[in-house]
Amino acid sequence: MLSDDIQNIDNWKQQLKQFPDCISDKQINCFEAGDSRVMENLVLTGNNIYDMYFPDIPSQYNPQSPSIWIEFAAAAFRCHTFVRDLYSRATPDYKVIDAKLLWDISHHATIAWDFDNGGLDAITRGSVYDFGSVWNANFVDQIRHHLFETITNTKADTKRFDLPAMNINRARDHGINGYNAYREWCGFKRAQNFQQFLNFVNVEEIEDLKTTYPYVFCKIFHLNKVYENDSFIVDIQMMYVDLWVGINMENPVRGGLIGSTAACIIAQQFLKIKVADRFYYEHPGVFTPEQLRSIKSYPIRCFMCTTIEIQLMQPNPLLPPSHPGNSQLSCDQCQQFDLRAW
């Protein structure tokens, strides 16, 4: 969050001033201008995402493109099934103030400036306890019927969008292949009929797919008069299932939140970013061993404690305090980020 960025820039600038013998005012100004944002991203993105969620990805630099796959950006990482309708606002000791609709938060800047009720910090505190929705093919009303909802003219006509429909159209605009093709790319068996989706998809979702893509059967009937190769005809049928639709109908992997095909694409993308980015923070020469130890020893819990008005925070803020081994700890236990290695 921008407010957290600004707070950390000021915190680290003041801390650097404690070392006048090794860093000048000019260097502090440079730190304020840009290096602090880099440092913050390293602490949060590098240490707390890769070490927490992708611990087995190798870190050896591989000089290939670290670019983002369109399959990742336009389908696999669009995890909108987790979005909620309502988001709680809470006090520093986590007493719920109220709950705001997603539309209100995204359209009314006054909520961010409502300092009597905690501003943006109150929403962040509420999110610590709010549970996300489960991974499935269901989406809340706020993103299906009220996305970017606006009044368009004097007649008060309402303009709104359906995010799932936009996701499907976006992938088609980019020419992304169908769900079945990426099952095969990930090493899973390419389905020859809808029933072969059963290894990842429930029977109910398969019936929904048959209803959602009825024109496929017309295509098959037409092709049957031209081609006598039944396997080719069935393969055409499977091609019509959109990637984003298919991955949202998959059951979550054991111990995870998302389905197998989405997990495959996301993991491969993060691996690509990590090994191909020569500035990735764990690669040799990017930081000294002392600097790297300082980064790795600073938990995301303490980052939130120092930038948000809270009293307690669990070790992993992305999991609820009720999760085993994730009980909340006092923010008084957090130390300042150690900049002595710089």
From TrEMBL:
Pfam families per record: An_peroxidase
SUPFAM superfamilies according to UniProt: Heme-dependent peroxidases
Binding site for heme b: 80
Gene3D superfamilies: Haem peroxidase domain superfamily, animal type (1.10.640.10)
Claim: Ribosomal protein is one of the keywords in the record: no
Compartments in which it is found: Secreted
Gene Ontology biological-process annotations: response to oxidative stress
Matching InterPro entries: Haem_peroxidase_animal (IPR019791), Haem_peroxidase_sf (IPR010255), Haem_peroxidase_sf_animal (IPR037120)
Main subcellular location of this protein, as a coarse class: secreted
Transmembrane segments: none
Domain of life: Eukaryota
PROSITE patterns in UniProt: PEROXIDASE_3
GO molecular function: heme binding; metal ion binding; peroxidase activity
PANTHER family from the UniProt entry: CHORION PEROXIDASE (PTHR11475:SF4), OXIDASE/PEROXIDASE (PTHR11475)
Protein name: Uncharacterized protein
